[in-house]
C-alpha cells in the first residue's frame, strides 16, 4: 500500500439515484465500508457503465486504485455486505431498483498487458478483450483473434467463458488470478476451472484481477487479416452499433456459432425466436433486433424492466411455439423497481 490520500464514500448529488433508491441506503452502507485509496461512491448510477444504458444505482461503487487496495478493502469488508464484480457491462442488465451492497469495478490499475515467453500474454482483468487481441497480434501470437470482436474486458471474458467463431476463453486461459471475498489472492490453472458454455465455476464473489493467456506462433499480418474478417462478419450480421448485450439467449445446441459455412449447430436461439414471430417484437424502448433477432436492443428510452420483460415474453412465446425453454445468456442482477417489488 502507498500513502496516497484515502477516499471515504462520496455522497451522491440529490436526485442522482432515480429509481429504487428507497430500497438501498447508501449513507448507512458507506459508514460501514473500509477506507480505501480508490474511489467509493454511494448510490452511484450504473446505467452509464453498462452497454444497455439502463438500471438503477449501486448502493456503493468501489473503484480500487490497485490490487493491494482491493485486497485490503476486501479483507476488511464486513461479511454480510453483498459484493458484485462488474466488468464493462456488456453482458449485464442491472435492474431498475439498483444493486445492494458494493459493486467493484476495476480500472486503470488493472489494465496492464505484458508479453511473456512461449507465446503468452499476462493481461489485467480490466483490459478490453479487443486490446488483448491487438497486443497478441503485434507480438505474433495467434489464437486470440476471437477476442478482437468481443466488447467486454478480460475479467468478464473469463467469468463468462466468452467465445465466438469456434474459440472460447477456456481454450486460451493458462492461469487466472482472483481475490477471494477475504482479500486473499488465488491463482488457478485454466485446466482446473470448470468452464462451460458461457460459464465458469469460479466463486461468484471472486474478483478476477489477472489472467495469463497462451497462444501459438503466428504471422502478425495473417492475425490482423483474421481479425479484420471477424469484424466484417459481425458488421454484416449483427446490430453492432445498437445498444445491446450481444446474444440474449444461449443457443439450445450448447455452442456459439462458428460462423463457418455448413456449421452443423442448427439449433440456434435466433431461429426459434424467428419461428415464434418475435423478430422486431417491442416493449417500451426495448426491441428484438430486426437485424439479428437474438439481440435485445435498447432502441431509446428503455428501462431494465422493459428489456427483461420483453426477454421473458420471447421465452414464453418460444416455449408455446416449440416447447423449448430458452435460457438467458445475459446476466440480470439487482433489485426490481420499488413499485414492482411492493
Ligand atoms: C455487441 C456485443 C457482442 C457480443 N458478442 C459476444 C460473443 O461473440 N461472445 C461472447 O461470449 N459474448 C459476447 N458478448 C457478451 C459480452 O461481451 C461477454 O459476455 C463479455 O465477456 C462480458 O464482459 P464484461 O467485461 O462486459 O462483463 P460484464 O457484463 O460487466 O459482467 C458479466 C459477468 O462477469 C462478471 N465479471 C466481470 N468482470 C469480473 C471480474 N473482474 N471478476 C469477476 N467477475 C467479473 C460479472 O459479475 C458478471 O457476472 C457480446 C456483447 C455485445 C454488446
TrEMBL record:
Compositionally biased tracts (Polar residues): 245-259
Top EC class of this enzyme: oxidoreductase
Compartment(s) where it occurs, according to its Swiss-Prot or TrEMBL record: Cytoplasm
Gene3D superfamilies: 3.30.465.10, UDP-N-acetylenolpyruvoylglucosamine reductase, C-terminal domain (3.90.78.10), Uridine Diphospho-n-acetylenolpyruvylglucosamine Reductase, domain 2 (3.30.43.10)
Residue span, FAD-binding PCMH-type domain: 53-218
Keyword flag Cytoplasm: yes
Biased composition (Basic and acidic residues): 235-244
Residue numbers spanned by region Disordered: 1-21, 235-262
GO molecular function ontology, one term from the record: UDP-N-acetylmuramate dehydrogenase activity
Record-annotated active site: 198, 247 (proton donor), 329
A family per Pfam: FAD_binding_4
Alphabetized InterPro entries for the sequence: FAD-bd_PCMH, FAD-bd_PCMH-like_sf, FAD-bd_PCMH_sub1, FAD-bd_PCMH_sub2, MurB, MurB_C, MurB_C_sf, Oxid_FAD_bind_N
Catalyzed reactions: UDP-N-acetyl-alpha-D-muramate + NADP(+) = UDP-N-acetyl-3-O-(1-carboxyvinyl)-alpha-D-glucosamine + NADPH + H(+)
Highest taxon listed in the record's lineage: Bacteria
Pathway: Cell wall biogenesis; peptidoglycan biosynthesis
GO biological process, one term: cell division
Broad class of the protein's primary localization: cytoplasm
GO terms for cellular component: cytosol
Cofactor(s) this protein requires: FAD
Entry EC number(s): 1.3.1.98
Keywords associated with the record: Cell cycle, Cell division, Cell shape, Cell wall biogenesis/degradation, Cytoplasm, FAD, Flavoprotein, NADP, Oxidoreductase, Peptidoglycan synthesis
Family: Belongs to the MurB family.
PANTHER family: UDP-N-ACETYLENOLPYRUVOYLGLUCOSAMINE REDUCTASE
HAMAP family recorded: MurB
Entry function: Cell wall formation.
Name listed for the protein in its UniProt record: UDP-N-acetylenolpyruvoylglucosamine reductase
Organism encoding this protein: Albimonas donghaensis
Amino acid at each position: 500500500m502507498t500513502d496516497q490520500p484515502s477516499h471515504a464514500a462520496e455522497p451522491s448529488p440529490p436526485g442522482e439515484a432515480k429509481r429504487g433508491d428507497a430500497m438501498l441506503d447508501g449513507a448507512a452502507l458507506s459508514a460501514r465500508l473500509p477506507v480505501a485509496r480508490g474511489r467509493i461512491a454511494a448510490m452511484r448510477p450504473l446505467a452509464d457503465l453498462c452497454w444497455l444504458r439502463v438500471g438503477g444505482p449501486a448502493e456503493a461503487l468501489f473503484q480500487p486504485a490497485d490490487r493491494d487496495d482491493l485486497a485490503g478493502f476486501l479483507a476488511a469488508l464486513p461479511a454480510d455486505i453483498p459484493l458484485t464484480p462488474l466488468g464493462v457491462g456488456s453482458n449485464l442488465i442491472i435492474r431498475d431498483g439498483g444493486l445492494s451492497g458494493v459493486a467493484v469495478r476495476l480500472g486503470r490499475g488493472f489494465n496492464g498487458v505484458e508479453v511473456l515467453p512461449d507465446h503468452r500474454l499476462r493481461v489485467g482483468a480490466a483490459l478490453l478483450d479487443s486490446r488483448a487481441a491487438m497486443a497478441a497480434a503485434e507480438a505474433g501470437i495467434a489464437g486470440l483473434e476471437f477476442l478482437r470482436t468481443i466488447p467486454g474486458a478480460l475479467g468478464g471474458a473469463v467469468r463468462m467463458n466468452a467465445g465466438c467463431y469456434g474459440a472460447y476463453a477456456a481454450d486460451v486461459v493458462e492461469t487466472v488470478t482472483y481475490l477471494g471475498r477475504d482479500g486473499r489472492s488465488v491463482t488457478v490453472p485454466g485446466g482446473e476451472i470448470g468452464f462451460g458454455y458461457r460459464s465458469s465455476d469460479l466463486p461468484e464473489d471472486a474478483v478476477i484481477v489477472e489472467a495469463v493467456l497462451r497462444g501459438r506462433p503466428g504471422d502478425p499480418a495473417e492475425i490482423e487479416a483474421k481479425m479484420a474478417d471477424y469484424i466484417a462478419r459481425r458488421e454484416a450480421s449483427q446490430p453492432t452499433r445498437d445498444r445491446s448485450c450481444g446474444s440474449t439467449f444461449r443457443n439450445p445446441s450448447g455452442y456459439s456459432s462458428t460462423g463457418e459455412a455448413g456449421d452443423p449447430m442448427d439449433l440456434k436461439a435466433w431461429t426459434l425466436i424467428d419461428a415464434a414471430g418475435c423478430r422486431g417484437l417491442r416493449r417500451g424502448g426495448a426491441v428484438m433486433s430486426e437485424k439479428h433477432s437474438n439481440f435485445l436492443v435498447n432502441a431509446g428510452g428503455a428501462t431494465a424492466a422493459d428489456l427483461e420483460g420483453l426477454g421473458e415474453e420471447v421465452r414464453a412465446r418460444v416455449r408455446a411455439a416449440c416447447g423449448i425453454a430458452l435460457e438467458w445468456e445475459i446476466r440480470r442482477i439487482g433489485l426490481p423497481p420499488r413499485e414492482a417489488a411492493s
